[in-house]
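Box 3.1 A note on notation
Throughout this textbook, protein chains are presented in two layers. The first layer is the amino acid sequence; the second is a token string describing backbone geometry. Keep the layers aligned when reading.
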Amino acid sequence: MGGTFDSLHRGHRHLLEKAFEVGATVIIGLTTDEFSKKYPKEHPIASYVYRKRQLRRLLNALGVLSRAMIVPLNDAFGPAATDGGIEALIVSRETEPTGREINEQRAARGMKPLTILVIDMILADDRLPINTTRIRRRELDPEGHLLRIGSGSS
């Protein structure tokens, strides 16, 4: 699995918990500062060092840190496209197309396709997905509770 994991929230926890339910070891690609800059956001993104530290804290709190490998993610595909030892990929509904692209790359290399497990987005109180942009706009808290009236989607 991979992502930016900025402003960790309930959706991130859900995705990580599902990954550790099915994987003995979970490789987590964490976008580097350089890669994150290729997809500008409406808000600043915390540094790689900070995001990695926060992710490690969350994994420790979930009791799965010893089963995690956090690796720098310099592109949209990471080791999943080239590592024959990886068997499955956990993606959100939003990143499912990237999972299919990874399998296309693996097929082109003569590799076995990954099992792709798609996890639905976690919804906030307003029934819209929880995401970092909404949290940074102060529409939601990290649990998906509304912080202001009239918040909309990102």
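The longest helix spans residues 48-61. The helical segments are 10-22, 33-36, 48-61, 96-108, 132-136.
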